Amino acid sequence: MLVNNLSLCYHNKLILAPMVRVGTLPMRLLALDYGADLVYCEELIDLKMLQCRRVVNEVLSTVDFIAPDDRVVFRTCEREQNRVVFQMVRDGTSDAERALAVARLVENDVAGIDVNMGCPKEYSTKGGMGAALLSDPDKIEKILSTLVKGTRRPVTCKIRILPSLEDTLSLVKRIERTGIAAITVHGRKREERPQHPVSCETIRAIAETLSIPVIANGGSHDHIQDYLDIEDFRQATAASSVMVARAAMWNPSIFLKEGLRPLEEVMQKYIRYAVQYDNHYTNTKYCLCQMLREQLESPQGKLLHAAQSNQEICEAFGLGAFYEETTQQLDARRAEFLAKTPKEAGEPTEDTSGVIKMAVKFDRRAYSPQLTPKMCLLEWCRREKLAQPVYETVQRPLDRFFCSVVTVAQQKYQSTLWDKSKKLAEQAAAIVCLRSQGLPEGRLGEESPSLHKRKRETPDQDPGGPQAQESAVPGELCKKPFVALGSGEESPLEGWSKKVLASAISLEHRPGVAQDA
């Protein structure tokens, strides 16, 4: 039996609640900046976490847990190590040992382990997860007891109240006996939503019954509008601590004793963290939209809505120069690290022959969406009666960046600059080929009339006919699976290491909006 020897105090704390799609690293760090004592990550399904590998990201100075599709499921850093609580939600078909395996996977990188038994959303409850566990106290007891005995980190859980006070008190007493360090109580029933009043009386009854700390949750809609309201909510519930969800999502400076900061200042600070820690732009955009709320139709809100990258988000908030400076610093750090460990990082060898290389990147803003370098290259190959371009793309595990080599007429072309996506890397390779041949690459102002003519003819063709197939989007015609770089493996691509992956990087979004999960 292990002893939870690294204690975490849950008394008199201000806590950022676990929120789906909101509780990622930038938001957690921002909440800490504004005075939160503890921060919870978004709820993460145990089965998905067990499929992850732990990677130390030397470029970002983070620890990443990466899924088989190379998506970052959980990212943390040293600054929050002693203050971040990892919250898991169990797959309904799993047993307690699976939860323990996840806890052991992350316990060296987090301060505490929490089990979500309070999320009322259908995507959780339909699989026996979240609030669905409240109807199975035997399973609750087994999960928590197994975790308490098997992990070195303090274990907590988060619940909702049951229909009757008697049943609620009976359940929390049973939970306390498992040895958990604290319990978070959302003061609403499973079927209730934020518009329903939170039951401060029930939370108070629980706090007066248990000897472990009780963390009150659910006050954003009715009670918490500023910092002083947090203490009022704590006193109304007699709780040891308060966990804040929606009010913190709307403005994380809710934790600041001096009062709320201007929203634009808060959003700019969030964006800086998002860029510094390479947060996916869709997640950055989602969190900023939650902050803007009724201002989404403002000029700035419309710019945010139209943004398709972190760079465009930065430009919408006057942080374009910051983005350029930060990305240059990250690129320099990446290059420095790769120079020290070329083999492990997957850099091509210097004696590679037969590949024409050039340091270029594809900047989508310099090209028409209807005319990309890949399209120009395909059109030129058709005109010269050459075989279609063939793209081979590799991914290095250090930072999950991509590099593509395009083969045209048995000659290979490659950009020496790695990119964040497979599509961008392929476009860069096409640019190298086109520039080497002195050909137009589709930059604004140098469109190809023949390509425009072909595009105009396409809608009139039979969608299933051979001409339609010929005019399909390049890349769909000549796709090859990309490979992830490993060690000790040979690749047709200049002897680089190779591992065939099933799909490109994608950011999974759960349905619904963030809530007091």
TrEMBL record:
Principal location class: cytoplasm
Subcellular location field: Cytoplasm; Endoplasmic reticulum
One cellular component term from this protein's GO annotations in UniProt: endoplasmic reticulum
E.C. number(s) listed in UniProt: 1.3.1.91
Keywords: Cytoplasm, Endoplasmic reticulum, Flavoprotein, FMN, Oxidoreductase, Phosphoprotein, RNA-binding, tRNA processing
Domain DRBM as annotated: residue spans: 373-438
Lineage: superkingdom: Eukaryota
Annotated InterPro entries: Aldolase_TIM (IPR013785), dsRBD_dom (IPR014720), DUS-like_FMN-bd (IPR035587), DUS2_DSRM (IPR044463), tRNA-DUS-like (IPR052582), tRNA_hU_synthase_CS (IPR018517)
Protein family per UniProt: Belongs to the Dus family. Dus2 subfamily.
Name of the protein described by the UniProt record: tRNA-dihydrouridine(20) synthase [NAD(P)+]-like
Organism: Galemys pyrenaicus (Iberian desman)
